[in-house]
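Limitations
The structure tokens in this dataset are predictions for the assembled complex, not deposited experimental models. Users should treat interface geometry with appropriate caution, especially where small molecules or nucleic acid strands are included. An illustrative entry is reproduced here so readers can see what is and is not provided.
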Amino acid sequence: MTRKLFIFSTIAFWIAVTGLGTLSVWWLPAGQGTAQARDKTLSPADLAKHTSPENCWMAIRGAVYDLSTYLPEHPSRPDIVLPWCGKEASEAYNTKMKGRPHSPYADELLAKYRIGSFAKVP
Amino acid sequence: MNRLRFLLLPIVVSFLVGVPVFWAFPEDLRFWRATAIVLGWVGCGLLLASLLLMVREVRLAIWLGGLERMTLWHHRGGVAAYLVLLLHPLALAADGWHESPLLAWQVISPFSMSWTVWVGWGALLLLMLGLATTFARRLPYGPWRWLHGLLGIGVIIGFVHVLLLGISIAALLATLAAVLLLVWRLIRVDAGLAARPYVVNSVHPVARSMVEISLQPLATPIVARAGQFVLVAFFHGPHYRGCGEYHPFTICATGPGVGFSIGIKALGDCTQQMQRLEPGVAARVQGPFGEFLAERPATPQIWVAGGVGITPFLSILRSELLSQPTRLLYLFRSAADAAFLDELQALADRDAHLILEAVPTGAGLPNVEKLLPASDLLSGNECYLCGPPALIESLSRVLRDRGVSELNIHFERLDFR
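Predicted assembly:
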């Protein structure tokens, strides 16, 4: 019984994950509508060049933010935030202390530092 | 098993799941994100419970209702944790879906440049691989045991994933608890720190591919009752090289003095090797465990033994005269496989309460419908079964069909894979 459950659930999981991955590739051109056409598209390689506290970019929820000027004001200890410079940090942003995301205020604040959209290369 | 001990195991599992979920329960979050967080912590709690249940300590086993029950819950808890943790990334993706499928994929994509996501995927893949090999029962026990260890590595990496999320206090405590339980299991059980040193005193063939081994303690002995089982590993002797794996064996006889004897049937590579055991071989013993025949009521009883499953019944009959009418149905393939049959007949002759029925069944699963008494003769009887899992399942089904309550059917499988 548990063996069948394992096999069935594992197959269903991979179908869901590969389906989502495939759909996201298909969705990418459609997601870049006219409203985002003016937006600069930044690659993971672009992002990876900005890893220092003075030059810190992060990709969060599909957009790239230059947080260099904001970092000194961030309430967390630097060792919590700085490792995410130059990286895709949606998961960290969404799961602050106790797995909770940042507040709507933080979302608004973040928007001010947006410098482009993040182009994922699966 | 009394009610407290019956309830203690579900209470412990509920506690280990409930505390982290209560601590981390999300407030004011979107439904799918909150669901993902709760699923993550439920999975962590179930993994911790599963780790606790693989620790084989005598007192812990007594409190939690026996090693067999702990193993069953260890398996179920592990599979439940796996199912819940499969849903965890899917729920995270569902949360991102409301913005776009692209974001849903980015949140869980293993191609993200994020150690948190990579470590999460690593843990999940190790759990997947470890469980896949756990269900591969045709694997020899040695490789199976090592591959099963992938699950332990997966669990630790899973807790590292939680630590990387910045959830410091709970994740740190949970990771420490997981490491402690794994180290406890490795040192006390697998490395044998909890085991007592014994030496093989005598070896007697009792049937085809079966020997009775008597063991004498080299230090403080275990205190065992008739019918209990122990985990024994055999090492080296004058001409014998043991495999050093701990296998469960029912105690056939306690004494004289402080030693005991076990019956070993060749059922695998290691137990086949044990047929060549000789006096002087070093052994280590963990236990004793089990309460299979410990709390027998005064009502009439039916005992059914298949092959080597005769050993717990033999152990009782060797140690005492029965106080309730008991019918022992002993099933074996052929006369050459009928271990202890002459002794059992002698015991039946001296014990007025015992009726022995010895039945050669040939190869394959016997027709138990013909062998078991009719419904009216089963009424009011307590039924005790010991033998291969397929035989026990078949016997239990027929007994239930003939009106015997689950509460009156007792069995022991000694299958700890």
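Some entries come with short summary sentences. For this one: Chain B has a mean pLDDT of 90.
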